[in-house]
Amino acid sequence: MEFTKMHGLGNDFLVFHGHQALPDNVSDLAVKWCDRFFGVGGDGLVFILPSEKADFRMRIINSDGSEAEQCGNAIRCVAKYVYDHKLTDKESITIETLGAGVQPVSLKVENGVVQTVRVDMGEPILDGLAVPTTLEGNPVLDRPIEADGREFNFTAVSMGNPHCVIYVEDAPNFDLGTWGPKLEVHPYFPRKINVEFATVTSRDRVEMRVWERGAGPTLACGTGACATLVSSVLNGLTDRAAWIGLKGGDLYIEWNEEDNHVYMTGPAAAVYQGTIEA
Ligand SMILES: N[C@H](CCC[C@H](N)C(=O)O)C(=O)O
Hints:
CATH class of the largest domain: Alpha Beta
Oligomer: single chain
Helix content: 10-25%
Bound molecules: 2,6-diaminopimelic acid
Number of helices: 4
């Protein structure tokens, strides 16, 4: 199967186009192909499929084989792919996702190549039971959670996929590897959860590191950046637009007061094309 290796701020994927549906053994293939030693290496597989409701449809499989409802960095890669491969000549397109409906995407094109992508990520879901968590509350805001004897406070936000945002002293140096996996599978989260550790440095900047559900530590998480901005506004820590500083780079996130939609702006890059045996 032919693929294009792409990334959004180092959150990297094998991108496939030209298929009508996911391969039957896509979970096994994700585990095998995302392995960084025995496979191509990646945080997940992304399939660009036909859609009856939008210009294109995206499905995302994490490196552990689980399918996610949404993926911010991947949707920017999909937008770049379809324009650069001349599957569309529009600079405003729509992409259907499993968990966030149809999303408008606008492309910033320079010299005929997509440089940055702005995605309407839709409205955040704040009702605790809908994120989902087992907790009542709309929102579930700054609530205690205990893992292995240590207590944190978290805010729950869904962008179609679930997120748990926790504020810490120094996110870039936080012990992500110890606490991320424990919280990912905490009993509060029936579908597990993406865990963001964040440090607010000003009203328009937050440093964040992410332990992703089904993928572990990644260099960037688009939906996680959106969840972190929404959480920071709800907790009174930032304005409604801010830079989210990730290990792989920065994303600009806005939570529009008029339409309640979250907008994400950032880059997408293609690295190489290849073929791989199923
Ligand atoms: N691991 C995530 C999916 C990928 C999200 C992330 N890579 C992004 O850019 O939003 C989940 O299971 O919800």
